[in-house]
Predict the structure.
Amino acid sequence: MASASSGSTDFRASPVPSTASSTVSLNSASTPPTTPASDKPADEGSKLRMFLSILRKFIGVSDIAAVRFSLPAQLLEPTPNLEYWHYLDRPETFASIGKSDDEVGRMLEVLRFWFTKDLKYVKGKPCKPYNSALGEFFRCHWDIIDDAPPLATSPTTSQSAPNKPEDSVSQTPARSSPVRVSYLTEQTSHHPPVSAFFVDCPARGISARGYDQLSAKFTGTAIRVTPGAHNLGIFITLAQRGNEEYQLTHPAAQLGGLLRGALAVSVSDVCFVTCPKTRIKVILHYLEEGWLGKSQNRVQGVMFRYDPDNDKYTRIKDVPQKDILAHIDGCWQERVYYSIPSTPAVKNAKDTDASNIKHLLVDLTPLLPVPKTVPPEEDQLANESRRFWKDVTDAILNKQYGEATRLKQALEQQQRDKAEERKARNEEWKPRFLLFCSVVSYKSLFVVGGVMASNKKEPMQYRYTTVTGYFLQDENSTNPDTFDFATQNFGLINREYDTDASVDSRSVSQWQRFGDKLQALNKEASKGTRYILVYMARHGEGWHNRAERKYGTKAWDCYWSTLEGDGDIFWADAHITDQGASQALAVHALWKSKLAEQSILAPERFFVSPLDRCLRTAQLTWSGIDLPSGRPFNHEVKELLREAIGIHTCDRRSNKTYIQSTYPFKVEPGFAEQDPLWVPDLRESNPYLDARLKQLLDDILSHNSDTVFSLTSHGGAVGAMLRVVGHREFPLKTGAIMPVLVKAELLHGREPESPKEPWKPKPDC
């Protein structure tokens, strides 16, 4: 069933267990309520009567989901819409997708997930969460044991008894290591009401994405809900299966029993699951019940081979018998079965009576929705669902319905005021995280918000400017192509400072005098302003650099960069070459000499990209150097410090276990085992890269009071940092370092801007 977003008619099962009485009504947009607020709690009967009185006003309205109205608090479930709605009632079934080496088995795993995603409808009563505000978002995760059993795909496999769940997901065959499934959803549009979502299980290489929107119509006896124009279903990608993509479309749902007072959700429609890469399609037919007959909630389906370029079958009866791979049958609220026939479409099948072979796909009867793990409210952002609705929730839980309605109205009015302000400025609102509702949208979570990577409090926001006049790299007259930082004292300009009067300039080095000046700048700075020295280092030459020279930039970007190597050179998560190692060792010697001869300002904090070429460069550069007291060699691996993300395999990092077992560095909290950012089909644009590097700098300054930092990274990442701090363009050669004096001014109450340029697809060469 399709989910709803703010402003839509929304019928949701109340949580099991629930923190408040279940309520039934329709979702709506933000305008003053049509029913007076009251502190008297409504019983179920009065709630239903109030609900019906509202619905009668919409008889004949083609889409009541688009109508703007609001409801009093006594009709609301004290749960944000974005928190309550998701497709992960049983996240272990999502994590188990793709385990089968058989393509039929993988489709069955997708179907097992499909039938568990709406468990809330099966186990609870319809209810009304809060409307979602524009820009509101919700994040959570589940750490689950993936104990979903394998699914038989042979027509000769022994039969499971019809009512015994030997193969059911409800059984636990063996314990395995827990895996994390993360979820993010954001309200991306208010008119029409649309939300976007992304699900990720990095350990298994599984992700899902999509838009949620619905349309609803009151027929006089029931409410029929269908997917909205933007709701094309759930898109699941299996990265470890050659990026197989499955599209799961939603059937129409119906809320009935309004006249009898016995509300129930039913489904009577056809939906589809398709995988163009494996050329497998499923048609699921939710059967319509008789008007007076007892509901059986029956679903039938067929899995078959199809032609993605000529997708012509939409009814089960039209599918040729020879193409059928499996039959689906059962009750979508209890047990669903499948059978594998003996047809030419089933590889290596033996003659057998398919009608007698029935396997249990999933048994829903013992299952309940799995609780989410959500960051504490004090660590959430201002527009994060629980924090955004906290006061309303508290009032409802305390049965202060009048106060809850007043608070709800205030939030709604606040949203309308913001909309008017944007209109007056001729400013279009942009989603912060899920801008394009694709895998890239989720990546923007890291590069803009940084809220999924860890549960740390939101970093403070800073404005950065380069303080010029101290380093040659700042000067327009310095040519980056010919500049040699090693022979130019890292670029430090030999000049006098106004702080020189306090020392004998003949007995101290230029670097020591610069250190005095930096200290004075911070001492004299206004509150909220800091001056920092950032050593930006590019890794030594990597094998990907050598391969790009070998094939040329155009051929590299168009083709070779998407491969892991050419049989001669291997460049996936590229290591440094012998030349790259020599460059790093030369910088090591330079640091040792400058520390001994000039007491150069040594970094107080060290950060490094998680890509191997940077890790190795940092290790060769700094290991064995005798740093000043109090400035230990303490590199921290930062996910956001990496190169532009996507397409190029050289920029796909290795797993956490490899990094920790190979290098003596600590990884930041929340660092994922598998690369959570890299995607094979899109490349991070410069605006997103800049936003990510700004977020990195904000995070570093928010959690460190130090003044001198070392950041070992990449050419593209260094270029982005230079743009962020307002420095002129100064491309670094491999193995090079440049110091930048930066002024950081704390910004109060300002949200970071969302990048406006999308990620880029692979060049069409």
In short: The chain has two domains: 12-378, 439-761. Confidence is low (pLDDT under 50) at residues 4-41, 157-174, 348-356, 436-456.
